[in-house]
Write a structure and sequence with these properties.
Distance between the termini: 21 Å
Number of domains: 2
CATH topology of the largest domain: TIM Barrel
CATH superfamily of the largest domain: Enolase-like C-terminal domain
Strand content: 15-25%
Structural class: alpha/beta
CATH architecture of the largest domain: Alpha-Beta Barrel
Shape: globular
Strand order of the largest sheet: 5-6-7-8-9-10-11
Helix content: 25-40%
Largest sheet: 7 strands, parallel
Number of helices: 11
Number of strands: 15
């Protein structure tokens, strides 16, 4: 049944991380996060805009996303009949780029539709292939290798099934050698966040000896062809992240064998509709996918849980417990990981958790509503 979005509220949150998180882009101590609340018929759906504070992971950043939402996305969503959440993306498709901003709204509309239908979000998007999703953790660059080893040990004792460590030139071969020496049987992957070029192929090939699950996005975000050349020179599978913004990109990359695994991030591809399409392309090619993270608060984390229960998400993702990042999350209960290293799906309508409105208000630094 068609419906209209009657009101949209944007909230900007400022939340300090429990521990800094460092990648090849730099070190993050706190997150500025935009939440989107869409309302219709007395119900609200919630989404999270997953861009960073700076345009380093991609071209989007929090300040810019607020403007794109206010001036371009919301006027094309408000009071326009929608046949379904799946049709919402077409309303903003002609806006070039800004997929994380657009995806935050699209995800909120999917959540709203699930609540309208009285079903959990995972069911609304056609997921639920498994009732528990396998979890890994992403560990940023540390001050010392010893610090890294301590963190890995802590996460393995907590039950996580896979460890991802961030790498960059100078924090790669020797670091991973020490990790492998200490944890010879651990499922281990390395994430470069585009820190290398094709000229570093020999250096990256040196990682083959460590039996990694994958090397994630070693080259630039727009270098699908170079990734194909690099993959031909490596035994270790390349996992594509920043390169894949659509199902079309995924199909191109897989046809030229640019990688053997795809990381699907909900915001990076613009929401659930495109994420499902990327998933389906990978599945047709026999390529496994997993769910990446962007240091989300509870709402974005809950959306990732729903996404990761699609059938081809066969590898442990970066969806982990709230307490790894936040002293207090904006949802109740907070996301928890079992001793088996899994997260159990919730059956409540929508994304499955309650919003802690008191705490949400305390970390909100900007708010604006549109009717």
């Amino acid at each position: 049944m068609a419906f209209e979005i009657e009101r949209v509220t944007l909230r900007r949150l400022r939340m300090p991380l429990v521990h800094f998180f460092e990648t090849s882009f730099g070190r993050t101590y706190s997150r500025d996060i935009i939440l989107v609340e869409v309302s219709s018929g007395g119900l609200s759906g919630w989404g999270e805009v997953t861009c960073g504070e700076n345009p380093f992971y991609n071209e989007e950043w929090t300040d810019g996303a607020w403007l794109i939402l206010r001036d371009y996305v919301l006027p094309r969503i408000l009071h326009h009949p929608l046949d379904s959440a799946a049709s919402a993306g077409a309303r903003t498709k002609h806006i070039r780029g800004h997929l994380m901003a657009r995806g935050g709204v699209e995800a909120a509309i999917w959540d709203l539709e699930a609540r309208r239908n009285g079903v959990p979000l995972w069911k609304q998007i056609g997921a639920g292939a498994r009732r528990e999703i396998p979890c890994g953790v992403s560990i940023g660059i540390q001050d010392t290798v010893d610090d890294l080893l301590v963190k890995i040990d802590t996460e393995l004792r907590a039950g996580y099934q896979r460890i991802k460590i961030k790498i960059k030139p100078g924090w790669d071969i020797d670091t991973i050698r020490e990790v492998r020496r200490r944890f010879p049987e651990t499922l281990l992957m390395a994430d470069a966040n585009s820190a290398y070029t094709l000229a570093d192929a020999d250096r990256l090939a040196a990682l083959d000896e460590f039996n990694l699950m994958m090397i994630e996005q070693p080259l630039a975000h727009d270098e699908i062809i170079d990734h194909a050349e690099l993959q031909a020179r490596l035994r270790t599978p390349i996992c594509l992240d920043e390169c894949i913004r659509s199902a079309h990109h995924a199909g191109q990359a897989l046809r030229i064998k640019a990688g053997r695994i795809i990381n699907i991030k909900l915001g990076r591809v613009g929401g659930f509709s495109e994420a499902r399409a990327v998933h389906d392309v990978a599945q047709r090619h026999g390529i496994p996918v997993w769910c990446g993270g962007m240091l989300e608060a509870g709402i974005g984390r809950a959306h990732n849980i729903a996404l990761a229960s699609l059938v081809n998400f066969t590898l442990p993702g970066d969806v982990s417990a709230s307490k790894r990042y936040w002293k207090r999350d904006i949802i109740r209960p907070e996301v928890e990981v079992t001793a088996r290293g899994t997260i159990v799906l919730h059956d409540e309508p929508g994304f499955g958790y309650e919003i802690d409105h008191e705490f949400l208000d305390s970390v909100t630094v900007q708010r604006e509503s549109f009717n």
